[in-house]
Design goal:
The protein is α+β, with helices and mostly antiparallel strands. It contains 26 helices and 33 strands. The N and C termini lie far apart (75 Å). The mean pLDDT is 92. Bound molecules: ligand ANZ and zinc ion (2 copies).
């Protein structure tokens, strides 16, 4: 019963302060006033109908601690929140529930907001944004037009996954083993006209700047891997007996060029139909047709059996002049490198499997340092010594590779290049719930951008927004939307009906928060200068690749357009660990193992939930939810409350010098530890430091009562606790009779002398005479004491170059050096 009263009491306290904070606008972003700024931002959440779980709170609580801490440090803090409401997840969820995304996203966002307030998150709600509102997506469209003007947005045919029975395109994730996830019919690849953003133009910079970002290493590694730079050589190969017919190949191993025994073109290669011999044409065409049913992902599967067809043509090796047969095979991708390769079966596993299957020659040109070579079912892919390579025999393969690359360049047939695995960003969706692409198609003028003053191109309200099934957007069904006049010639024209994928909205939202009311452009340049780049960006690793790359790309384009003066939006990024359910599985509605903040707050209070989330593991570590462990956080907060009951005014006289002294040292050590830990995102050890401190406080109080030193210590604890447990800290602050609000107090400063570890004097004797006294930290071990003594300048003088015969350490306080 008592417990129940305590929690319902906690909930009253929380509700009361939440109301007061909102009334007083406590977390409103300050106007410019010369203070240093701090912009603390969470990844842009998509508000789902499931609401927040305690897993999401693992993101929002730490950024809230940092924001509150920075405010107390005297920074002007921008800590905003908004909704990534457009896009496929929202649309699919709406379809599944039979609701309209316009209604559901607003409702879900309101629920997120309620939950975030419940856990005490100190967002400036005046700056809330929603990417599906026209006053936001108007500017997403504006940036699209900027990209278009700069030649960075273009239309091209692109292969998409197409399910003929569902009459729809599918994302790669929706293709399971070559079949549609919904109807299990085979998926074909089909070419549809799509919009792309030329992110590859920035590949080199996106890669190079990863060196300068303060991000977790595994996220940087994922970015680098995705960009996927390969250094190599591109060179031309002529088709034997067909003057003028030539193709280029890309290789990372020019050193293996003498081992080329065939060449391969991708099924998409434009030269294919021209070079194929008449008697091979039917077979080649059948193969090309078959390969259309295979997705790119599947084509790169190393487990898959390699197959292909001979074209009847031969190509000439530019180094040896020897002819090799040209095959078509789908393990070569049309969209990577040049879409054609020189095949070296002895040193490339894929080529090796292919050659063995079709009985093609295998010529070893490299021997490993231990004599390793191609054997059994493995090609030797390493470096080593050149063999069977004419003038290069006997050279190390790395050097020979350089020499061959140079020779190809000098002969004018090749050049060194860097290939990126990254593709241009396919931004168009044939779906309803997104920002319409602001383009008009005119018979006479072609592709015409919508003039800026006509933005936004509004997304019409369609009660029936289901995908049409013919690969076009549902907007194509709406004549009022489609039919328009050409902005260039005034004639009849048709609007683009594709919409932008959700990643467009999240590629610039961090700029909007600086001044979400601005209506002269996507962002207010002055406010952006004041707040950006973002000081701290926090989110989950699941968005570590696409979102971050796209946002970095848009930032660079805006910088090149002279609109902002920085090129990286998020110089510092941190990524929280995942909270799995108690069973170790991912929390998900279908498993029924989701734990919501609402239920935990109802049982234990919001501050307890916050402390538990911070304390349960290091910030970046994955953990399983453990509700029993919450008792530790609960006990700690109860102890703080009990300590608070006795305080208010000092009621006891000062205690003995020794105890007051060590309490003061504990205060300053705790300030130092908590400060350093928060700066280093070590929230768990920061909480531990406060727990220890509350223990010593309780012990002290038991002995001496509420002395002046106790009151000072307790007040400090409350200020330290404020960012972590904002409700209880506010309540205790009020009980201390202090003016509202604890969240507007200065962060305690530690006194370095008091925070320092206790020092003792190490006395050093040489041959029995005291020669030096060195201040050292207490608790030095013998080895350290010995080292410190021998390092002493005075001791060395008295040794006069002699080696000590014996060094005796006594009790960590006295060292006797005997010569
Ligand atoms: C000859 C060679 C010999 C190769 C050798 C490798 C080892 P990454 O690292 O991914 O860039 N390649 C080139 N274009 C390709 C395409 N469109 N589809 C499939 N494979 C392609 O790999 C570069 C290597 O992958 C290139 O170097 C080429 O094979 C192949 F002992 O050329 B190599
Ligand atoms: Zn299907
Ligand atoms: Zn026109």
């Amino acid at each position: 019963m008592a417990e129940k009263n305590e929690t319902s009491n906690a909930r009253d306290v929380e509700a009361r302060w939440q109301r007061r904070w909102a009334e007083e606008g406590l977390y409103r972003t300050p106007e410019p006033d010369g203070r240093p700024t701090f912009y603390c931002l969470d990844f842009f959440p998509y508000p789902s109908g499931a609401g927040l779980s305690v897993g999401h709170c693992r993101n929002y609580v730490p950024t809230d601690v940092i924001s509150r801490y920075q405010r107390m440090r005297g920074r002007a803090v921008l800590h905003p929140m908004g909704w990534d409401a457009f896009g496929l997840p929202a649309e699919n969820e709406a379809i599944a529930k039979g609701v309209h995304p316009r209604d559901s996203t607003g409702r879900y966002a309101a629920n997120y907001k309620r939950q975030m307030s419940l856990i005490g998150a100190s967002y400036d709600w005046q700056r809330e944004i929603n990417s599906s509102h026209p006053d936001y997506y108007r500017w997403t469209q504006w940036i699209f037009l900027l990209l278009h003007r700069r030649g960075l947005a273009y239309q091209a045919l692109a292969p998409v996954n197409w399910c003929a029975s569902c009459q729809t395109t599918l994302a790669n994730e929706e293709v399971e083993g070559g079949d549609c996830w919904r109807c299990h019919q085979p998926v074909r690849r089909r070419d549809l006209k799509q919009w792309f953003l030329r992110i590859t133009a920035y590949a080199a910079e996106l890669l190079a700047e990863t060196e300068r970002l303060d991000w977790p290493e595994h996220i940087l590694a994922m970015q680098r891997h995705w960009i996927g730079a390969s250094e190599g050589v591109e060179f031309g190969m002529e088709v034997d007996g067909q003057p003028g017919a030539a193709f280029r190949v890309f290789t990372t191993r020019p050193d293996t060029v003498y081992g080329m025994t065939f060449a391969v073109l991708a099924p998409e290669h434009p030269l294919l139909s021209r070079i194929v011999s008449p008697e091979r044409r039917a077979e080649v065409e059948a193969y090309v047709d078959r390969s259309r049913t295979v997705t790119e992902v599947e084509r790169q599967n190393t487990e898959r059996q390699r197959d292909g067809v001979w074209t009847g043509a031969q190509a000439l090796n530019p180094v040896t002049g020897r002819p090799v047969p040209i095959f078509v095979a789908d393990y070569v991708l049309g969209s990577y490198g040049t879409g054609a390769i020189m095949a070296v079966p002895a040193h490339d596993q894929r080529d090796y499997e292919f050659a063995r299957r079709y009985g093609l020659p295998i010529v070893e040109v490299i021997r490993g340092p231990e004599g390793e070579g191609t054997a059994g079912d493995r090609a030797y892919e390493g470096q080593g010594m050149m063999v069977n390579s004419g003038p290069y025999d006997g050279q190390p393969s790395t050097e020979a590779g350089q020499a061959i690359a140079r020779a190809l360049e000098e002969a004018g047939v090749g050049r060194r290049t860097v290939q990126y695995r990254m593709r241009d960003w396919l931004i168009s969706r044939q779906r309803y719930w997104g920002a319409p692409i602001p383009i008009v198609h005119c018979e006479g003028c072609g592709t015409v951008p919508v003039p800026e003053e006509d933005l936004p191109v509004r997304l019409p309200h369609l009660p029936d927004f289901l995908p049409r099934g013919d690969g076009r957007s549902p907007l194509a069904n709406v004549p009022e939307f489609v039919e328009t006049t050409c902005p260039a010639c005034g004639g009849p024209a048709r609007r683009e009906t594709d919409t932008m994928g959700g990643f467009a909205c999240s590629s610039w939202y961090f700029l909007r928060f600086a001044d979400p009311w601005y209506d002269q452009g996507p962002f207010n340049p002055e406010a952006v200068r004041r707040w950006l780049p973002v000081d701290l960006y926090v989110g989950g690793a699941e968005h570590a690749v696409m979102h971050l790359l796209y946002a970095r790309f848009w930032t660079k384009v805006l910088a090149d357009a002279g609109l902002i003066d920085f090129r990286e939006p998020f110089p510092r990024l941190r990524s929280q660990g995942i909270v799995h359910a108690a069973d170790g599985k991912r929390m998900s509605k279908s498993r029924g193992n989701v734990v919501t903040p609402d239920e935990v707050v109802a049982r234990h209070g919001a501050d307890t939930l916050r402390l538990h989330l911070l304390f349960m593991a290091p910030f970046d570590r994955n953990v399983n939810w453990d509700e029993e462990g919450i008792a530790g956080a609960e006990r700690f907060l109860q102890r703080v409350c009990r300590l608070g009951e006795a305080t208010g005014q000092a009621s006891a006289p000062a205690a003995s010098g020794r105890d007051d002294d060590s309490l003061r040292r504990a205060i300053h050590k705790t300030i130092r530890r908590v400060t350093e830990d928060v700066e280093a995102y070590k929230f768990n050890t920061a909480v531990a430091a406060m727990m220890e401190f509350s223990n010593s406080l309780a012990a002290y109080q038991e002995r001496h009562g509420s002395t002046p030193a106790f009151c000072e210590a307790f007040e400090t604890l409350i200020r330290l606790l404020a960012p972590f447990a904002p409700y209880i800290a506010e309540e205790m602050w009020a009980r201390l009779g202090r003016a509202f609000s604890v969240h507007q107090q200065a962060w305690p400063e530690h006194n370095p002398a008091l925070a320092a570890d206790e020092t003792v004097t190490l006395v050093v004797q040489v041959n029995g005479k005291v020669r030096d006294r060195i201040p050292v930290a207490a608790g030095l071990d013998d080895g350290e004491a010995r080292a410190r003594a021998l390092a002493s300048e005075r001791v060395r003088q008295h040794l006069e170059g002699r080696d000590p015969r014996q060094v005796i350490v006594v009790g960590g306080r006295l060292v006797n050096v005997v010569t």
